[in-house]
Design goal:
Elements lengths: L41 H31 L5 H28 L8 H7 L12 H29 L2 H23 L18
This protein binds fe (ii) ion (FE2).
């Protein structure tokens, strides 16, 4: 009879924590679990999670761009923009969590770490240094546009594939929040008189 292999570790209960444990990945990035009781085909979940990871990487980048702008803003509108940028940062942070958790519930793997996000995002990397307010605002609006156009494509595709949950999240959460933020940011780029009315402009 073959001898039982001798275990080198004890599996008896103990108060001693087990530190520095290592093992291979449970699931590779870019894959979905074979089955999930959602009544959604594996191929649909695979396509949606890939698209949602792109949306996630871009949303994380926009979120961080808002925090950068919050810290580095300067000038006469410092206070209002400092507050507005942080409000938008918080709202984008919520979206990041919503998108990330949707990827996981579809059986996929959410992108998470900054270096991986930097590789995937389509939003151009800003300089480390401080930029003028109009440049900050333009950069934010350009980033929003990348996300808004992707939202519209993705929502349509999700609708076609029958993934109503993804369609609803993309439209109700990501798209609508983005559109509202674009309005608030854009109005700061209107050249409007602050003290003296422009009396030379013809009235209609
Ligand atoms: Fe702050």
């Amino acid at each position: 009879m073959a001898k039982k292999p001798v275990s080198t570790t004890s599996h008896k209960s103990s108060a001693q924590p087990h530190f520095s444990q290592k093992a291979g990945e449970l699931q590779a990035f870019g894959t979905v679990t074979n089955t999930m009781p959602l009544q959604l085909e594996e191929s649909v979940r695979l396509e949606m999670t890939e698209q949602l990871n792109q949306l996630l990487a871009d949303t994380m980048t926009l979120r961080d761009l808002y925090k950068k702008s919050h810290w580095q803003v300067s000038g006469a509108t410092f206070y209002q923009l400092h507050l507005l940028f942080d409000k938008h940062y918080e709202e984008q942070s919520e979206l990041v969590d919503t998108i990330g958790e949707r990827i996981q519930l579809l059986g996929g793997i959410s992108i998470a770490m900054a270096a991986d996000v930097a590789e995937l995002t389509r939003i151009p990397r800003p300089p480390k240094g401080r930029e003028e307010v109009p440049v900050q605002l333009s950069r934010l609006l350009d980033a929003h546009q990348v996300i808004l156009s992707h939202c519209r494509e993705l929502a349509e595709r999700a609708d076609k594939l029958g993934d109503d949950g993804t369609n609803d999240m993309v439209v109700s959460d990501v798209l609508r929040t983005g559109e509202l933020q674009v309005w608030f940011v854009s109005e700061h780029l209107v050249e409007a008189p602050l003290v003296e009315a422009d009396s030379e402009r013809q009235s209609a």
